[in-house]
């Protein structure tokens, strides 16, 4: 049963090496994610963090119901350089994390 009022947190992250390879993408993704609610009202960005120990840039987002997060990430692929997604499923109160990274086999590096 799909409950549209159920909200969950998901994290969209970006690896340090992807951000280093494409210096402009952190700000571009911030703006893109912040504006995505206009396309899908079930999506909101709650905050953006930088994890100094891992170098990850992380956007903590809230989604309602069964919003297809992978569809949103495919839309994002049209606007930034090629990437691959590493998905980590969360359990309990911890939501899933989707990490944008340099495509495997790519010559891009920091």
Could you describe the 3D structure shown?
With 110 residues, the chain is of the alpha+beta class. The protein has one domain (7-101). Helix content is 24%, strand content 33%. Strands 2-3-1-5-4 form a 5-stranded mixed sheet. It starts with 6 loop residues before the first strand and ends in a 9-residue tail after the last strand. The mean pLDDT is 89.
SSE blueprint and pairings:
Elements: E1 7-14, H1 16-21, H2 25-35, E2 43-51, E3 56-64, H3 69-77, E4 84-88, E5 97-101
Parallel strand pairs: 1-5
Antiparallel strand pairs: 1-3, 2-3, 4-5
What's the count of strands?
Answer: 5
Low-confidence stretches are none
Main sheet characteristics: 5 strands, mixed
What is the C-alpha radius of gyration, as a whole number of Å? 14 Å
Order of helices and strands, N to C?
EHHEEHEE
Tell me the domain tally: 1
Strand order within the widest beta sheet: 2-3-1-5-4
Helical segment tally?
3
Termini separation (Å)?
45 Å
Shape: globular
- The proportion of strand residues reads 25-35%
Tell me the helix content.
10-25%
Mean pLDDT: 89
Alpha-beta classification: alpha+beta
Summarize the entry for a quick read.
The protein is of the alpha+beta class and 110 residues long.
Task: List key phrases describing it.
110 residues, alpha+beta, five-stranded mixed sheet, 24% helix, 33% strand, globular
């Amino acid at each position: 049963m799909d409950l549209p009022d159920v909200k969950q947190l998901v994290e969209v992250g970006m690896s340090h090496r992807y951000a280093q390879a494409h210096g402009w993408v952190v700000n571009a993704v911030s703006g893109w994610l912040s504006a995505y609610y206009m396309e899908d009202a079930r999506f909101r960005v709650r905050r953006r963090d930088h994890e100094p120990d891992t170098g990850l840039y992380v956007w903590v987002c809230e989604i309602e119901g069964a919003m297809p997060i992978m569809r949103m990430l495919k839309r994002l692929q049209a606007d930034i350089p090629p990437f691959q997604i590493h998905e980590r499923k969360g359990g309990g109160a911890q939501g899933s994390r989707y990490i944008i990274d340099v495509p495997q086999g790519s010559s891009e590096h920091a």
